[in-house]
Protein 1
Amino acid sequence: MTSDKNKSLLKRISGIVFPLALTAVFLWFAFRSIDFSVMFEHLSNISVFWAIVFIIVFLMSHYARALRWKVMISSVKPDASSMVLWGALMIGYGVNCVVPRLGELYRALFLGKWEGLSRTSMLGTIIVERVIDVAALIISVLISVWIYGGNLYDDVLWLKSSMYIVLFAVVFMLLFFILLIRYGENFYGVIVNFVSRFSARLAEKLGYIFKMLVQGFSSLRGTKNYIYTIFLSALIMFFYGLNSYIGFYMMSMDDIMPVTFGMGWILMTMSAFGVVLPTPGGTGSYHAITILVLVNIFGFAREISGAYALTTHLISYIMFLGAMFISFYLGNIRQKRIGKKSENFLSVFKINPDQ
């Protein structure tokens, strides 16, 4: 028993220490050779107008995410509130800014409580959503390679290997999901039974994961919903690229050289790899990749590139945390208004009979 407790404690500590250490390494790599006095001078000249536009587009991109989630769960909850979905989404992103990946769990838990939905099926839709996001990222990178003037694979040395890894993962997941949907329990029952020979606990966890995935996929039904999901995924990526493009004007980088939406799109796709890494809110990893792309691909100075990375990330970080607390507050007001109890970050873990 003591050994299990020690292992659990060690796992929790490593889950906190590793992301923080990774963040520190990336931040050092990003800002190690930057003249901070020049960078802060750039920071003092931020365009308020374009910062407001940046925030508006930022909010629109995540509202589009909420709408996509609404489409994905329409078969089980056709009248789900778009604002409640957006609120749960923002809570998830806000938590991710503190503890990487934990926000995905909280997002499903809060929506399950607020809309009376199965947490298992909601977690399944989030996993499905992440697969769609990865596929969208691959397509976005291919578009970047196409619109880039030179050879992007040569100028970003890690891009090709990363693409191979991501593409392999997507193909594997798609094949796995096809087998899972087509053969259901017969497919994953074989895997669970095999794993149970070595670890009953692991087999139980796998069984729960398979159940989540089946419920997640079953909630996305109908040709119309598939088309809506594809359209909204493209719209989300467009908003992300537009935000990166607006960032150039927010930092007055158009005074240094002409900027285009294509540059914003390329920057968005490259920096997305930094957000995928397990650092709190992409801190450090986003900065390192963004500065790398702005300096090595587009030829901006490190100081203005660092100012761009700091500003865009800080605005996003503040918006996520602010929206998380606002959504938490307004969500509980709604709960009380409809005669239900309010929820907090501990109570959402309590399982209701229908969840």
Note: The first helix runs from residue 2 to 31.
Protein 2
Amino acid sequence: MSEFRFAHPWAFVLLLLGTWIVWRHWWRAKDATALYSDLGLMRGLPLNWRARLAPLPDVLRVVGWCLLVIALARPQSGQSREVIRGQGIDIVFALDISGSMAALDFQPDNRLAVAKSVIMDFVEGREYDRLGVVVYARNAYHLVPLTLDYHVLNALLKDVKLVTRLVDPSGAQTSLDGTALGTGIAAAAAMMRNSPARSKVIVLLTDGATNAGLDPVTAAEAAATLGIKTYAIGIGRPGEVPFEENDGTITTIVSDLDEPALQRVVEAGSGQYFRATDAESLGQIAAQIDRLERSPVQRQVIIPWRDQVECWLIFGVIALFLERALRHTLLATAP
């Protein structure tokens, strides 16, 4: 529900101060006396425009003062807090960014581009699920913490690059390539360690066998003790596949996807294993995971207040400027 509020309502005390100043000025003017001859003879004479507009500067001063006080009170508009109830889960995607994800068996896109598009497709239509992303190669990194802000998640995910395309500040190529499945699982589990959700899931996306870091089966078992289930998606076709080198040349590599090892990982993590050989099957896998592990949740959504100060401030300054301009030009009076 739309609402309106003042962030600093104490500022309206200044209106009382302004009222007291105006009253004091009026009282002094009332007590002022001057001797004139009879003014009765001037009754009924037409008033010129200057006489008719003489009160205008005072009116503008009062209006300008009130507008500035309102601006100081910081008016804001926004939405009230809402509690949304539905079916949701906490999901962390552990995304492999090792060099082999440059394979082009999903031509014209490489494996990483297709994996990112599948995550983005999965995000579409989310409303109650908190989603996070971990990227890993030889090491693992938290890319997006658990969030309901899917726009930010997609924006950050689009910028994910292969670890072999990263460079250090001196311009040298990094040496962080590798496939540390266990480290990726551990990083994803750490992200959900303090989550109050009843259902927590890790979705592991990889195209290679473990060659660095923690043992993935041990990592999945540790995650299971925290109530976190591990699902795995094996990406890529078996055998030789085209591969794009950093210089743009196309060669071939042999897929090293270790499916038996991934089966052991999901068994330890009480999840399921899927094999993806093309973009369409990846989408089907995402849809299947979307139907799993759902439980009642409620989310409190708070839309931030938006300041509405500018118009009050601008019109207040304009009113005071006109008051001073008129008082010293067209409607100037003798002291």
Note: Residues 17 and 170 are 62 Å apart (CA to CA).
